[in-house]
Amino acid sequence: MTVISSTWTTALLVALPALPFLAVLALGILRWATGKRAEERIVWAVLYAAFAGTALASALLAFQLFATERLAIEANLGDWFAIGHYHFPWRLRGDRLSLPFALFASILVGVVASFSRKYLHREEGFHRFYLLLGLFGAGVELVVLAGSLDLLFFGWEMVGLASALLIAFFHDRPKPVEHALRAFVTYRACDVGLLAAIVWMHATTGGAALDFVGPGLRWPGLVVPSEARDALIVAFLLLWASIGKSAQVPLGGWLPRAMEGPTPSSAIFYGAISVHLGPYLLLRSAPVLEAAPLAAWAVVAVGLATALHATFVGRVQSDIKSALAYASMTQLGLIFVEIGLGLHLLALAHIVGHASVRSLQILRSPSLLHDHQHLEQAMGQQLPRTGGHLEGLVPAKIQPWLYRHALERGYFDALLIDWVVEPFYRTFRALDRMESRFEIWAGGEAEAPDPTSGLDLLEQRR
Amino acid sequence: MSAQIHRAHTPGNAQSTLAAEIEEAATWLPEQAPLSTFVHHNTLHHLEDLPFEEAVVVGSKRLRTSAFQSEAAFAEHLRSGRIQRRDVEAVVDARTEQPGRLLFSGGPSVREFRGFRLRHYFEVPSGAALRWTLQEGGAGAQMASGVDELRRPAILARGPEAASLAALWSALEASAPPIRESHAPSGRWRDRLRDKTGIDTDEWVHPLLIRLSAAFLDQGVAYWRMPDREMGFLVAFRRLYGRRVGPPARWARGLPALVASQEKLGLSAEETIEWALGELGVTQGQRVDYLRDTLISLRGWAGMMKQFEHRPDRAPVEALPARLADYLAVQLILDLFAAKACARDALDHAGPLAGLPTTIPVARAERDSALVYESYLLAQLSEVPFERFLEPAVARAWLEAVASFGSIERRCLLHLAYERRHRVEVLDALAIHSRTASSRSDTASFQAIFCIDDREESTRRHLEEIEPSVETFGYAGFFGVAMDYRGLDDVRSRPLCPVVIQPAHRVSEVSASSPEHEKYMTRRRRRGVAQHASVIGSRTLVRGGLTSPFFGPLSTIPLVGRVLFPRLAHRIAHWLEELGVERPVTRLAIEADPDQDIQAAIRSGYTIDEMAGVVASALRTMGLDQSLSPLVLVVGHGSSSLNNPHEAAHDCGATGGGRGGPNARAFAAMANHPNVRAELARRGTPISQAVWFLGAYHNTCDDGMTYYDEDLVPSTHAAVLARAKKTMAAACVREAHERCRRFETAALTIAVDQALEEAEEHAVDLAQPRPEYGHATNAVCLVGRRQRTRGLFLDRRAFLVSYDPTTDPDGARLAPLLLAVGPVGAGINLEYYFSFVDPAGYGCGTKLPHNIVGLLGVMDGHASDLRTGLPWQMVEIHEPVRLLVVVEARKPVLEKILADQPGLMKLVKNGWIQFVCWDPDSPDLFVFEKGKPQPYTPESKSFPSASTSLDYYRGHREHLPPAHIGVGVRR
């Protein structure tokens, strides 16, 4: 058992992202080729089997890795394409960071798939939910196991897409769609950071591979550009990328809004896996952060600001899912701080621990009334009033101000609208007006088509 | 704006006018209490003065909801035979004036036309969809898809198909009336501005108002509570928003200054509202409408404010000083700022809002092409000779007939036809079953009194099937014990009686021995403190940061366990919880303290006299005062489930949404009390010493039974008790099995002995949004003797109320019974009706995105209105019919009761329930129409029969009509 032949390890490693992909493909074919609603049992079984498979494969690989005291397992499948000196490598890396993470993610996705089978029973979008969950799982496996940022980006985008589409799961109401768009726009704006980092890496180092770049590394990391300036730029770009995905200040406003989706998807995305991909990316790029102390301090600053912001805002939230969303954000902020300070193992433990706690809490959040009553009974009294020591710490004069600040979620929404969204709109409206003026100048005014009565049209068609 | 503030000149009567106006406007708010004390009620309770058919239309227009099922749903019912042709004909005949009048000479009669129209369902698009259909729709638009093969040649005979259709179209179009603009501009500025600018100012105001309301009413979710909320909503709002450096949102600029100045002036809520209404330019005549529309725009939260104002006793944890006027004042201030900002930014209008011109829609001269299209398709489908439509008079008459029978009218008639089929099935079954009615015996092995709840119908039926010598009875599940109850574990007492009663007695559960009690409480508390610390800790910064990296991974154990092995995980969790903590033996402190003030509004316990009254009146009403068996079980019920915010909605309605076990226990304790027995003997209604009452609790979700005070049962009764418990357990298994047929996740072939496991799993599974189906499918309420309905399969759809008309000649006991049962049954039934016909508008939609807020209710996502009504997963299998109340009593007795009880008469006359009189001595039935009884003639001579319930329902998921069950009848 301890020594699995290298062909097998490669195959298992490839199976990790491939199985979920195949499941998504199968579900897609099932839906669009047959045109019918597939049985819920079958839809569930396809996805569940895929993630049971990935869980098993990643467990085997992790066992193999730790038993043989190897540092990494690699699978090179050649290039997808090559243009000039750029090539897109299909390269997966199983190591002491990625394999435990892949195992953890597979188990959680499998658990959520099991949960949703009953929870989403009879739901119109049952099939769609599983398809998107599969897409998400596949994306996560790619992000986790990618041997280069190029491939990681691929998975990163799939996770973002699945996340937005699941927030908009109930697309017959306007709000979920609006909030999904908000999350999507935030993701896209920050994905620019990752993309730019990749381009910069290619321009400066000729690639964006994850390797054992220096001595004493526990797991492969991003190759460090030789110029300190380039390292700094890349580090900041990667920080920017992870701010969006992990709902850090000032872009975290989408996280409570994302709770519009079904409870199980909220649990796996915003309690467990998706929001932790930002820290994962930073853990992967740790060598670059180390080479650029300024960026590392920026990570600490962003994390600290987020943790403080979220802990205050979270304390005044009176609905359970927002309270949990801000609690997540608080811990994510701390994880950022830990990464910035170079406490990588602690950060990893924090990610796993926090994801476990939070996903259970979100899954169980509809039990709040039940649990509250139960807790009161156990304590034999009305639950003790909380917030006392906070009120003691903050001067009375500042309290209403601080409370309002927290209730309005730090005013980030209003500020973003006034300083980013509106100017953006204004610019493009002005451009639009210029364009139409130019069109009129260039081509003259077109006449609007004349509306005709229904019958005329009926006759015309004959 | 601040310059215009002054202390409004409000004479005393203006204040009271405004209060009256707010009250009138607030009648439209939902009456739902916080979820932990959920009680079913008629969603349109405030419209009960109108006939049902009118009220649902009024409600649907005002709230933009559906009044009836959709036409597509009705079309499906027609196709499946759920509605039959004779039902349609019967309702058309009954509801059409001059049904025999011909539309035009040689044409169909109104009756024929309507029947024909109801049988043909097709969608008539409107607006852009209609234009698209007319321009692009192809053959579908030109020839109705259902055009009879026989008609087609007639159409084609007039030349090429297109030409004849074109001729038809132009004939109809030429006679079509112009569109009548019915678009009256609504009063609210938000609506007017949205029409003009496309900006929805509620999108600015509502998120803030939701956050404020939620923070104000929060019962314990937030860690840090809103400052100064003890002073009321308006004060708390002013303290927060009257500070300088205001919120940076553009629309709210200037808000702090205004709020601060109003605070300084000490403007009351009423004065603030008067001021805001003036600023908004609302004239005297529009005030109620404006206030109503404003409140309706966020009706869940406004309704919760009203609930806290009127029923502070129903607050889950803390009764906050909420006032609707405070809330309205805040909403109007915010509305005003938003409207002004919108007018300023989008319309460059800076002055008072009243100066903003409102566009009046101009009547368009266009023909009503939707009507033409509908008439055109119908003309093709009809049997009227095709050429006739080319006569302008015929075309006009045709268009008029089509126009006067619109979607609402059609759905109303279809709804009546839908109800009629159900009514006929039930009444025919009753009439026929009467002939095989059981007899009462004096030798029942034991008797069991259940709640009248529709879910207990099957429990009773199975009990009777298993042991034919058992007698069962139905009585409102608080068993006449209207008490304020506090269990051993409870932190505070809660009323266990119907919502309309204010309990006058307080009863507590106490430990039989006090040292054991102390030990129990201490151990529990220790665990409680640890649990509480971990809940809080996981959410905060420092504690969360310290614990989650190290202890967090332990969460994967319950996470995986709860999801993959829900029953096992629950058992382990339960076992761990009980470990080392033994619950002491308890008793109910039922007897009154003789020293207390008997004038107090609420007293501890009951006097012997009061207990005797409770017992005697219950037994007499059920006809149980004679012939008691040695053992009488009194079974209360409730329901427990996980991950279900609407858990309390499955509890007992008769205890005000509580669990009825303690009431059953209290009733049994009263009936067993030696002094009560002595008092009853003195009154001439003795209970034999050989009779023992035992209280019990039935969990309708996992079908478990709990028995109370078993240690007090005399040894002489041990054998009969053991047998009774065994029979009950067997009945519960069968009952679980019958329930399983409704769960799609359980196979139809599931074995009887596996059903209990399935039910248990539903109760403890976090992933299960359908722990039980509750009252879904309820449709009937039978008031009368059980022996007349025993052996009748009623599919868990009937409330069964025991009443013996033979010992109550003048109906003295019937009147209070109907007064309790009528509104409660109607409330449950109508709430299901509305939540089913409009799951999003009247119900709270799907459970999946629900988010509990403030321990009060649920929102969709992070900031929506408080969603009231029932979730779709609770009602999805319901059949929306009004409750069919069948009362076994003589006709004159019932007529007299109705004449004396205006409240009941209102329900009957306005058709909020269907009311039927069932003669005690014959199978004759009388259906009340507009408050008058009309004899009923059965349509059929026979109905299904089977030897056991299992034989009848096995293999079916759908609703089953009543059936005769052989073994259930006692001969």
- Most residues in contact: chain pair: A-B, 104 and 114 residues
What is the averaged pLDDT score of chain B? 88
Residue fraction in strands of chain A: 5-15%
Kindly state the number of beta strands of chain B: 21
Number of DSSP helical runs of chain B: 35
C-alpha geometry of chain A = globular
> What best-fitting shape of chain B do the alpha-carbon axes yield?
globular
Query: Major beta sheet of chain B, specifics?
Result: 6 strands, mixed
Low-confidence stretches of chain A: 447-462
Could you state the order of secondary-structure elements of chain A as H and E? HHEEHHHHEEHHHHHHHHHHHHH
Given the structure, what is the number of helices of chain A? 19
Report the mean per-residue pLDDT of chain A as an integer. Answer: 87
Assembly type of the chains comes to heterodimer
Radius of gyration of chain A: 25 Å
Integer-rounded radius of gyration of chain B: 32 Å
How would you describe this structure to a colleague?
The complex is a heterodimer of chains A (462) and B (971). Chain A is mainly alpha-helical. Chain A has helices spanning 6-34, 40-67, 98-119, 126-145, 149-167, 174-205, 228-245, 254-257, 263-272, 277-284, 286-291, 293-316, 320-340, 344-363, 368-379, 388-393, 399-407, 412-443, 454-461; strands at 72-83, 86-95, 210-211, 221-222. In chain A, the strands form two sheets. A two-stranded antiparallel sheet of chain A has the order 1-2. Chain B contains 35 helices and 21 strands. In chain B, α14 runs parallel beside α17 (324-347) and α21 packs across α29 (718-740). The N and C termini of chain B lie far apart (84 Å). Residues 1-10 of chain B have low confidence and may be disordered. At the A-B interface, α3, α6, α12, α13 and α14 of A face α6, α9, α11, α12 and α18 of B.
